[in-house]
């Protein structure tokens, strides 16, 4: 069974949601505390949402200094597996410069919590190649989800955009809801697929992403 590690920082609050969804997708799941320094046995690292270190200074800015993030950097560089960062996890990945750009305050300057529709843009990555639907309905819950990058064309030209909002809720450049790194082994996204992983939580669309990850890892 594919093993996933959920990284937990002080202030993380979506780790249980992540565990439930990953188990629904068929993963063997363990928690990894932020000062742990060994991630070699995991094929997927999941950085969940929440308020790591209380979002003091800036969302994700303090978490990038945790010992675990040095290991995540090595994990990515050495192609040991896949990394998925959701909401605060996305913010942490940009702060750690494992993904380009930054997440800033929503255009409305208000916290937003609702379902949104996102279009699958790049369907050739481990995170997306087994997703059959064109559009997924996934919840968002954030105050700093406004994605910005100076060189937007850089993402477009390299096909690094993972998902785009159909109706941009936060002002993100290019309607961006999620992006990849250049090696396509890291995905950061603001919507929460783990919060819509079964039909009792919505329509279950979030599970498509997690199932694509699992199938890709199994078929490597």
List the helices and strands and how they pair.
Layout: E1 3-8, H1 15-24, E2 28-33, E3 44-47, H2 67-77, E4 82-86, H3 88-95, E5 102-104, E6 112-120, E7 135-142, E8 146-148, H4 152-157, E9 161-165, E10 176-180, E11 186-189, H5 206-218
Parallel strand pairs: 1-2, 1-3, 3-4, 4-11
Antiparallel strand pairs: 5-8, 6-7, 6-9, 9-10, 10-11
Name the structural class.
Answer: alpha/beta
Number of helices: 5
N-to-C order of helices and strands: EHEEHEHEEEEHEEEH
CATH C-level category: Alpha Beta
**Uncertain runs with pLDDT below 50, 5 residues or more?**
none
Spatial extent as radius of gyration: 15 Å
Q: What's the overall average pLDDT, rounded?
A: 96
- Spatial strand order of the main sheet: 2-1-3-4-11-10-9-6-7
The counted number of beta strands is 11
Shape: globular
CATH architecture: 3-Layer(aba) Sandwich
CATH homologous superfamily label: Class I glutamine amidotransferase (GATase) domain
How far is it from the N-terminal to the C-terminal residue, by CA?
Answer: 14 Å
